[in-house]
Structure formats: structure tokens, C-alpha cells
Amino acid sequence: MLRPMTRRPFPLPHLLLAALLLAATGCTQGHESMTTDARSFDNPAQAQFVAAVRDGNAALARELLASGANANAATEEGTPALNWLIRQGDRDAVRLLLELGADPTRGDAKGRTALHEAALSKDANWIDLLLERGVPVDVPNTRNGQTALFDALRAREADNIDRLLAAGAKVDVRDRTGTTPLHQAALVNDIPSVKRFMEAGADPHATDDTGATFASYLYDGDPSVLAAPVRRDYQWIRERLGGATTH
After folding, report:
1. What pTM does this model have?
2. 244 or 126, which is more confident?
3. How far is it, in rounded angstroms, from Cα 162 to Cα 158?
4. Which residues pair with 226 in a beta bridge?
5. CA distances from 175 to 32, 86, 160, 178, 192 (A)
6. pLDDT tens, 17-32?
7. Pick from 150, 170, 190: which residue ends a domain?
8. CA distance 182 to 19
9. Residues 148 and 177 in one domain
């Protein structure tokens, strides 16, 4: 008579080892985001930490920090986790990472801090979230010295510009080439922002390192081709410059 076949239990140490290996490689079921993070961050331990933050698992995230994970983990391209999470639109994860001690003034490969990343976003609420947690509104880019106001201009995000100005962003701040937001607005042909900065008290006579005022970079084409609201702003600016086009 044949005895019924019984399944021998898998040894517990082997089960633990398998679980650790799966966690390290980011291949556990139900953690698809961990696989994505593993492709973005420079080592499995950091990927596991970011995955815990994204899952809202504060206890695990703190355990991983105590074991050597870094709240300022960066992707292989040098993007801090905080910036990366803003790009993912993960608001809860950003809040948790800040609570865990991430440095919002840390720059990415281009020197952009979390606030610069927020200024580039179409969602102006990112700026509010960071400012509410004490991030300085004029925190400089770690490479070129530009504030978030410059990036909001580059992205042509008017709501972000307004949020930053309302929070006290300096309109006469200079980057490492002496460029002011007024210069930058003229350079990107953002005429409404030129007017906005002048109304906020920006010095129209400020010069950059080449000795040029913002007027040197201001649009000097045919005003009739501008949209009516922009044309009105342009005429307002010209009236205050006395018609001058250069410094």
C-alpha cells in the first residue's frame, strides 16, 4: 500500500533568505513601484527606502534609515528623491520624506532644488507645500545661483510666479552672471512678467555682468503683432522707459 505523499515544509531559514533577496531586488508582489524605483535609484537599498516612502510605510522607512538608507537618496542621474517624487506627483510621499529629514535645498545635476522643481510644475500647490514646511522662497540653484522665480519664468507658469512673489520672492535677486528676474523675463520674452516685476519694484536700471539692463533684451519688434493684452503691457513698459530700447 502506497503512503500518501506529504509536502515537506520549506525550511524557515530558506524562507527568510528568499524574502530578503526579493526585497533587495524589488521583485516582491504588490510592490511594482519598487521595481520602477530600482531602475531609477543607484542601489537596491535606496530603491527599497523610496518604495517604503511611496507606500506610506513610515515605520519601515525609518527602519531603513537606521540601517543606512539615505533620505537624500539620488537617482543615477543625480536627482534627489524629493525632486523625483515631485515629478511623480506623489504629494503624500513628499510630505513623508520631508518628515524623515530630506534636505529640500539639495540640488540635482543641474543645481535645481525641490522648490525649483516645484516652480517648473504645472501644479502651483507644490510651491505652497514646500513653503509651508519652511523652505526659503529664495533658495538658490546650487550651480548658477538662480532662485525658483527664474525657473517659473522659464516654464512660463504664471501661477507659480504669482505664488512666489506673494511669498516674498526678491525681484532684484541676481544669479552668478548678474542676471535678475527682470532680465530673465525679457530674455524669454515674457512681457507680462516684465510688467509684473516692475510693478513689484524691480530696478529697471540694474545691469548684468555684461553691463546691460533688461531693456537690452526686451522685445523690439512690431507691437502690432502682439496679442492685445500683451501689447498693452508692452506699451506700459515702454512709457516708463521713455521709449529707450537699450541701456
Report:
1. 0.80
2. 126
3. 6
4. none
5. 41, 24, 19, 5, 21
6. 333 333 433 333 333 3
7. 170
8. 56
9. no
Count of structural domains within the chain: 3
| Residue position matching grid coordinates 515631485 | 86
Residues in the chain: 247
Same domain, 150 and 166: yes
- Beta-strand ranges (E) seen in the chain are none
Q: How far apart are CA 22 and CA 45, in angstroms?
A: 12
Identify the helix (H) or strand (E) that includes residue 49: helix 44-54
Domain range enclosing 241:
171-247
DSSP β-bridge partners for residue 75: 41
Roughly how many angstroms between the first and final C-alpha of the chain, as a whole number?
A: 105
Each residue's pLDDT tens digit, 43-84 = 888 899 999 999 999 999 999 999 999 999 899 899 999 999
| Residue whose C-alpha is closest to residue 57's, from 21, 92, 20 | 92
Whether 237 and 225 share a structural domain: yes
Q: Which cell numbers in the block locate residue 68?
A: 543606512
pLDDT of residue 40: 72
Instruction: Answer whether residue 95 is part of any domain.
Output: yes
Sequence-ordered alpha helix ranges (H) in 75-188: 81-88, 91-99, 114-120, 125-132, 148-154, 158-166, 181-187
CATH of the domain at 47: 1.25.40.20
Same structural domain, 201 and 238: yes
- How far apart are alpha carbons 126 and 128 in whole angstroms? 5
CA dist 93 to 53, 99, 102, Å? 6, 10, 11
How far apart CA 122 and CA 24 sit, in angstroms, is 35
